Amino acid sequence: MKNTLVLTIMIALFFSKNIASQTNEKSKIEQAYTSYFNTERETIHLHINKNIFISNEPIWFKGYVYDKKNGVPFINTTNVYISLLDSNGKEITNKLFFAQNGYFTGSLDTNNLIAGDTYYIVAYTNWMNNFKEDEAYVSMPIHILNPNSDLNTSATKDSTTEKLKHDLQFLPEGGYSIIGVTNTFGFKITDCNARGLEIDGSIVNSKNEPITNFKSNIFGLGKFDLLPEKNEKYTAKYTVNGIDYSKEIVIDGEEGFAISVNNYTNQELTYITLKTNDVTLKNNTGLTYYLVINQNNKVVVIDLKVDDLKTSNVIPVNKKNLVSGINTITLFNEKSEPLIERLIFNYDDSLILNSDIIVNTKTNDSIPLSIKTFTHTKTPIASNLSIAILPDDTLTQTNNQNLISSFLLKPYVKGYIQNPNYYFTDINRLKTYELDLLLLTQGWSKYKWENIKTGTPKITHNFDAGLSIKGSLNPPKSSVPYTIQMFSITNQINESTTLVNNSFSFNNFYLKDSASINFTVLKGDKVINNLKPYIDITDNNRKLLKQPTLPLINKCKTTITNSFSLEHASSLGQELDTINLTYVHKKNSDTILQNRKEYIANRYSKGIKVDDELRRMYSYVTDIINSHGFVVDQLQGAGVVKIKNRNPVTFMASNEPLLIIDGSSYDRNYDILYNMTLEHVDEIFIDPDGNGYGSRGGAGIIRIYLKQSYKLDYTKKAIANEFTVNNGFSTEKKFYVPEFYALSKNDFINYSNIDWKSNIETDQSGNANFKIFNTNIKKAIFVIQGFSSDGKLLSEIKEINLID
Description:
8% of the residues lie in helices and 37% in strands.
């Protein structure tokens, strides 16, 4: 032990308050870290309802936004972009979503996606473009299947050949190995889909003499110690699928430093061991090196005088003095150049939430449940959650999305993490060891010193908050000021501003995509009809400037078992008795139409009550009209709508129906319907025959009734300029189970959600109640994710018995 030095150092991560008294290099290192990470940074996690979808089935998700520096929900974030990429990284679609209090909900259509391909969902903000690192969130792979095709694979390569492909990497701990010192080597072996392989092998020298053995865990990770001698070569020998392989072990140099960290045997201490040889100590006499431990802007820098070091130097660190989550350990030389680096993870139970779910007495169509959230000390706590409920035998993956990993682990590493949920479920000493093994094989941190040393990032991209409208108008000169009035039913806006230097703006508004906004020009109190302002929306089309890093997976053929029977639906009627899916399509024959008696002709019309189910099926009023005997043509961007009866009336008579809204006739001017959503519509009566209206209704009648709370004087539109919002905030479709799942019990069990709850809030007592669809499934998987207002995180997967 005479060559081992134990350094007793009080380590605590903090902001330096007395930089002037420190050495110049030490202060520069510390200042670089505190400056570079002092700027706020967002981290996003998406909880996606599952990862395998049938063609045309929507993808539902909930997003959580986390303040990386302060460890709480990032409540200031509002504008979040969701981009859908194919397996080559090409963007398919991009939508904007509105976040409040650190979370947002949404959905994406899969209508134009190619079945058999793999896709990724990327979440980012414009603010992330300020940083040199890729801060965007990238989802697990999303698979789209075609029920009528056997080509549900992610590639078309020969599977027999691909089984033999693998990648084995040997990684010296800290990134550097030297002669004459016992080095720890981590290794990882993966197949062509980035899944770990379980192997064992041996290390031999140039004489083929065995030196040591190695064995991987279920994720293909492992480590071993090796004391390399000068002028000797070492080779790893191992077997994959019955075939023998060999690979050389590279030793980096004859002098330098190596590192070995023990972060798992002692619950209170982490042992950092710096190793070197006599040659290195001799050649660096009189120099000072620096050991840095940091997470974001929290940093401590320790002087290490080489003259005081031995060939083995143990530094015990109390885990209470480390930051919760990832800590980066870096050794710098006297020139502030990083030599070795190691990531470690410091588990902290106080950051983790837990939950209990109780199944209450079921009803015919639903099952009521209660959920309780609490801390590690069983203290109840309010939280915001999302829950995906799937059949117990589902084929969709649930273990590759973990909110805790997304916020505390993934932002700091560069590589792919297989099954992140494993490291944060039932945590014990083995899990601690295996997470440390993962970090040993991940290499250096995502945050490079070459960027950190430049200090505070240059801010060139705005922190967006809502959308802004910029406009210009060139009116005649007048001593009376001009006012621009903006109003919109859909966005619930009624605002005014004064024209200044022929320009005006409305800043930081929530504007729904495709909604109509009307602008009126006033001179004093007088409406000016012949002036039309030029209008544009800003902050609504931000692109991610750095190409997001997609996991290097699906490089070989991946077969997803296609047990679909949808094309054989006619033979599956008997299965509907064993699984209750009647909720996917409800008849509204018993629905009471309030306006049925408002006008006598309504009795002859098809009455339609606009409810949640109808809003899921149709986006716009014109969609309903188009499906009930009329042909609707919308001229996109021009605000023009044309409607014709599908059945010709006469050669002489008009083929255009009569439009009436809230009792006011619009004759055959349908532009008012342009992009009119169903959100504020109560009832619609449609009669292609026009009964009760005489010759005026010869081509049909369309009567629309708005909700009482959203009555509008549409005569304003005659004196207003209408503007349609493009690339505005998207909204989440209400969750539903597609009807095709009702055709087969097996398809439902394999691929469908039972339910999806995107917004469950527990109260201060930690309690919340909710209902899920009763499908007669006895056991279900609940994937629960969320956080509390003070930053405590919840990510659990539970099996729950729904029916005794």
